[in-house]
Amino acid sequence: MPRRDQHVSLAHGNGGRLMRELIEELFAPALENPLLDTRADAVAVPTPQDLELVVTTDGFTVQPLEFPGGNIGSLAVHGTVNDLAVCGALPHYLTVSTFLEEGLEIEVLRRAIAALAAAARACGVAVVAGDTKVLGRGDCDGIYLAATGLGFRPRGLRLALAEVRAGDRILVSGPVGDHGAAVLLARQEFGLRGDLKSDAASVLPEAQALLRVPGLRFMRDPTRGGLATVAHELARASGLRVQLAESSIPVNDAVQSVCELLGYDPLYLACEGRVVAVVAPESCPAALGELRKVAPGAALIGELQAGSAQVVLETSFGGQRVLDELEDDPLPRIC
Ligand code: MG
Fold first, then answer.
1. What separation in Å is there between the alpha carbon of 231 and the centre of ligand 1?
2. Cα 191 to ligand 1 centre (Å)
3. Is 90 a domain residue?
4. CA–centroid distance, residue 25 to ligand 1 (Å)
5. Residue 208, φ and ψ in degrees, nearest 5
6. Number of separate domains in the chain
7. What are 214-271's pLDDT values in tens digits?
8. Interacting residues of 263 by C-beta distance below 8 A, sequence separation 6+
């Protein structure tokens, strides 16, 4: 790219030379693969006959665009891959639409796309289609990404909220709240800095480990609204009481400190690299064993009980506290 083009201009989205150069010099080398390289308007993707296609889509508007442990590019891959992974699928393909704000530094975009490409490669997925639009100053906030993920899973896999039963156990693959706390700290306005890092990562190893265990009922990645929100989804869908043990829920010390300082509850803060799993009681030891091979911090944190649909936390002091459902996300734009 010529040196004068240090920032994104409206012309980078107008279909002319500047847009062609942006695609040829920034996107294509980072993302190259045989399907993308056809430069067709649409691509045919091979679909294995004995598997079923699983599709997910997500928008990414995180602020700031770069945070400790990732950026909007890697987050778009991990967020999309994880939604496929917790549905029992192996991710294969991604499409990515990029919305850029006029005036964005090209270097920021380059770092986002490099991280996106690296994350995609590490997860074994190919970006097979993409689009770029540029909006005027103030019409968007730096970069927005919209990603669609395609994966395949065995036909007839029974993995759903409807499968959970009273007595089932609830596992989490590691400490909760890291992503929310890291993004919170990365925002200038708090004037705080810590060594906190987002947990943003692929949960494919965790999901695949759990899928080996008969008696796995359901998995979800606790993103917006955190662990407490997944617990509410479980209670609402099953009509059961979700009982969580506070002392068993892993929370990193740095996350706990930030939450105490700023008045947040880590149980409501987003993770981007964790799995919550529900397993039949007799499968719990095997599930925890398999999970800990890839996620040593995994823990048994609670169970589903007959009773009214609510989420109850047994506190570290032996009391019981009802966890309310969030009215609103305390931390918008974390993904
Ligand atoms: Mg999800």
1. 13
2. 30
3. yes
4. 33
5. -65, -35
6. 2
7. 999 999 999 999 999 999 999 999 999 999 999 999 999 999 999 998 899 999 999 9
8. none
